[in-house]
Amino acid sequence: MDKFNKELGKAKNPWIKRIGNYLLSREDLYENLKKEKKSLEECFQYILNELAKKAEKAKQNGIGFVSGDDQELYDLAVHYYDENNIKVTKENYRTNANGTANENQLLNKMQKQPLKAEKEKLKSDTEIEEKINSAVEKALDSYKKEQKELEKKRKEEIKAKKMQKAKAKQNLDQLDIFEILGDGDV
To answer: Are 115 and 106 within 8 A, CB to CB?
Structure first.
């Protein structure tokens, strides 16, 4: 745990600090945070890699950007520390996760098209802005839809569990006529 705390103390990226503090808040993860072959920096790289994979899938649907809500990022961090066989590589993509990338860099990398060729097709900077805004809106809509579906599934699972418990309780509360009359030897 000392190694993890030292890493967290040295971290300058606010996202790494936020994720590290979340992991520390989970007592059930303390043993995993002690793993020598794991690091907070590599954990963050793993999260970025997973978001990049999600971006590639989104790109196939015409969306050039992707993001993750806090819980999704935390879940990825927990997964990284839970699993022993995760191999993390340094991928070549741009991100604004540390606040250093700009929209043009993101657009260039995520669409994997030369930005100059794209600008030649567009007549003005406002068209570029509109395209970026449209892509962001599509990504957000897709993400919101995905989150609603997940929430709906969670609610259905909770409802199913409650119904199972109610049925089990109802079965316990029902009188067994054979038990009252005896074993049927009458």
So the answer is: no
Nearest to 63 by CA among 166, 136, 130: 136
CA distances from 28 to 33, 72, 157 (A): 10, 18, 24
Query: How does DSSP classify residue 29?
Result: G
Task: Name the residue with tokens 């260039």.
Answer: 108
Nearest-10 crossing angle of helices 14-25, 40-60: 110
Are the C-beta atoms of 58 and 65 separated by less than 8 Å? Answer: yes
Tokens 């309780």, residue located: 169
| pLDDT single digits (tens) 59-103 | 766 665 666 778 889 999 999 999 999 999 887 665 656 545 444
Instruction: Please tell me the distance from the alpha carbon of residue 55 to that of residue 66, in angstroms, as a whole number.
Output: 5
Asked if 3 and 40 touch (Cβ cutoff 8 Å), the reply is: no
- pLDDT tens profile 105-147: 444 554 544 455 555 555 566 776 777 778 888 888 888 888 8
End-to-end CA distance of the chain: 69
